[in-house]
Amino acid sequence: MVVMTRPVDILYAKLGDKVKENISLAPYTSARIGGPADILITAESADELARIIKLLQKQEIDYLILGGGSNVLVSDKGVRGVVVLNRAKGVRFHNGDQPSVTVESGVVFSNLANRCAAKGFARLEWAATVPGTIGGAVYGNAGAFGGDVAGNLIWTELLTENGREKFTAEQMGYGYRTSILKRSELDGIVLCAELRLQNSTKEAVSTTIEQFSAHRKTTQPPGASMGSMFKNPNGDYAGKLIEAAGLKGTRIGNAEISPLHGNFFINHDNTKAADIRALIELVIKTVKEKQGVDLELEVELVGEWQSETRE
């Protein structure tokens, strides 16, 4: 008699109680939306993240890495296979004339920016209002207020098919909210990064952060959202186009295009991912018809979507 071993049994044998089954992903996303993961595994360090990913690849188990969950929309049906929750949060500052910080990919970017401010380090003030983790920021070249990851990154360590490799900002092929990773030109997992800092004072850095934060509060809505839904087209703004199309305040179910900023979709409690998806499709269709512009999603849709319909 041949006893078949389930993939999850192998994971339990290797990782023990780190393995959780049928776990809702909504609490792990900034929009508080999404169905369950078949399996959820939490990585507590960059080394552990690398070990878990290597194990999943060896067993040929499908997986998705979730950091801060700020730039994703998880389907109502959830995610098949394994979701790896990245909680690798090691931080190491390097002092001197050219200071820098080495940070693991699960660190929340806004928290890092505020830690830099407390130590009198400048250059990451723009990141103090950026949601999500370092991993997602390096992957998508996050940016705000004229700054971005491309302008700060010294190197990032990726887990690729060749093992652990370091890539410079130039090698990451950065563009506006994109990289070789996001364009699927390279299959790699962000493990950690070293970011360039600048010596300053706590007061000066904190003042700049306060100014940026105040601006964000007046221009971007509170509440559960995914951040900016669409990329800004060349020479224009997605929010401006959505407003001009008369779509601000449009609501489907408990999902709403913010009346304050058209590029933010708000979850007004127990919103279905399918309702957000319906708003996305409405915006794309209407902006194309009225302004002749093809909007491109900044948010990534993950999970099972093909047969999903609103109920």
Description:
With 311 residues, this protein is α+β, with helices and mostly antiparallel strands. It folds into three domains: 7-86, Uridine Diphospho-n-acetylenolpyruvylglucosamine Reductase, domain 2; 91-219, Uridine Diphospho-n-acetylenolpyruvylglucosamine Reductase, domain 3 (2-Layer Sandwich); 238-302, Uridine Diphospho-n-acetylenolpyruvylglucosamine Reductase, domain 1. It is 27% helix and 25% strand. The protein contains seven helices and 18 strands. It has helices spanning 7-15, 46-58, 109-118, 134-140, 202-219, 238-244, 273-291; strands at residues 19-24, 36-43, 63-66, 72-74, 79-86, 91-94, 100-104, 121-122, 143-144, 147-148, 153-160, 163-167, 189-196, 198-199, 251-252, 255-257, 265-267, 300-302. The chain has a five-stranded antiparallel sheet. Strands 1-2-5-3 form a four-stranded mixed sheet. A hairpin with a 2-residue loop joins strand 11 and strand 12 (163-167). Helix 3 (109-118) runs antiparallel to helix 5. The mean pLDDT is 93.
